[in-house]
Description:
By secondary structure, the protein is α/β, with parallel strands linked by helices. The protein is built from 13 helices and 25 strands.
Amino acid sequence: MEEKKxxxxxxxxxxxxxxxxxxxxxxxxxxxxxxxxxxxxxVMQAVDAASKAFDTWAALPARRRAEYLRRWFDLxxxxxxxxxxxxxxxQGKPLAEARGEVAAAGRFLEWYxxxxxxxxxxIIPPSGEKKRIMVLRQPVGVVAAxxxxxxxxxxxxxxxxxxxxxxxxxxxxxxxxxxxxxxAIVELAHEAGIPxxxxxxxxxSAALIGETLxxxxxxxxxxxxGSTEVGKMLMRQSADTMKRISLELGGHAPYLVFDDADxxxxxxxxxxxxxxxxxxxxxxxxxxxxxxGIYDAFVSRLRTALKQIQTGNGLDESVTMGPxxxxxAYQKVLDHVLDAxxxxxxxxxxxxxxHEGGHPEAGYFFEPTLLTNVTDQMKIMQxxxxxxxxxxxxxxxxxxxxxxxxxxxxxxxxxxxxxxxxRGIRVSEKLQYGVVxxxxxxxxxxxxxxxxxxxxxIGREGGHHGMEPFLEIKYISxxx
Length: 480
C-alpha cells in the first residue's frame, strides 16, 4: 500500500493531523494506497506557492519552459509501465487501456513543449503617424486544475501542460478515487526539475478545496472536467472573483449508423466509443440510432461482438473491460436498465451485474447490455448512464436521425457512420456537438480541439487552441 503526500512549493508534505483518504481497487475493494485529506491551510499554502512562483515562471523564456516540459515527457515515457499499473490498480480499466492513456498523457507534455515557443503577439497598423499599437499575449496567472477519476493520467497533463507552456503555475486537485496516478505524474515533474511552486498537488475534499480555490482572487483560472451539475456550481462561484473558467462536462452522445455504413467498421467503433473504460467516458455513446435497412444486420453483428467482451480485474491481460468505479456508479447503470425494461425495452444480451471482493464500495461489474425498442420516456435516453449499456432505436430518414441526435441539452460528442462523403459532411455539420467522429469511434487526440456545445462545457483543450484559455491579450498604445 502506498502512503502519498501533498506536493507544495517543490516539497512533499504530510498533513499534521494524519487525516487520510483510502484509495480502493475498484475490482476487488483492496486498499491500494492513501493520500492526505488536505485542509484549508494546505490549500492556501499551495496558492501562496503558486502565486509567488508566477512572476518568475512567466518571465522565463518560452524555450526554457519547453525544455522542462520535454524533460517531463521523457520521464513519462520511461515510467510508462509503472504509471499504467498504478492507474489500473486505482481506476480498474484494463492494463492495455491504461498503457494507452499514459502514452496519451505524455503526448500532451510533448505537444505543449512545442507550442510554448509559438505564442506570439502582433504589431497593428495605427490610425495616426505618432502612434504605434502593440498586442501581447501573456499568461493569465495561477491556475487551479480539477480532474476526474475516469482518465486520471491524460486529464492531468491535458490541463497542466498548456498552462505551464503559457507561463501559468498550477494547483492540481485530482479526484479522490484516483489520486495515485496524479501523484506518480507529479513525482516525475519534480524529477524533471520544474521550479518550486510551479506545480502543486492537493488531495482531499472536493467541496473544501474547491471552495477555498474559488474564493481566492489570486487564482485567476479554473479548468475542470466533471459533471454538468458541478460545472454550473463552479461557474456561479467564479463570478465573485471573475475567474476565467474552462469546463469539460457531461455528454449524451448519439451514434448514427446509416444504411450505407461499413458494418464491420461501425461495430468496431462501438467497442471503442462505448465499451472502452466500461462506458465511463464523457464521450461514450448513450443513444444508438440505426437506419431501418441495416438495423437487423447491425444488431446481429453487435450482439456477437459484445458477447466476446471479457470483464474482470484489469491487471489480467485477458480482460477487455474492467469494473465500474464504485457502488453508486453500479446502482445508476442498474437503475437505467431496470427502468428501460419496465417501460418495454427488449433485452438482447447482458443486463446482469455482479459484486466481488466483499467491500461495499468496490468490486462491481456489469455485462455489456444491448437494449431494443427504447423510447424517449426511458431514463437511459435522457440521462448519462456512464456504463456499458447500449440502447438501440430505428430511424428511417436523415432528417429524422438529426432531430433525434440533436434532441439533447448536451453537445459534447457525436458519431456518424456512412460511406457517403456528401452525407457524412452534411450530417457532421448539422450535428450540434463539439466533437464528431465520422467513421471514427475514437476522435480525441492531442493535436485537435476538444470540448462541447450547450451544457457540455465551455472552452477547448488540445491543439494550439488549448493554449488560448491560459493567455490574456494586452493592448499597448504607444505615443511617439
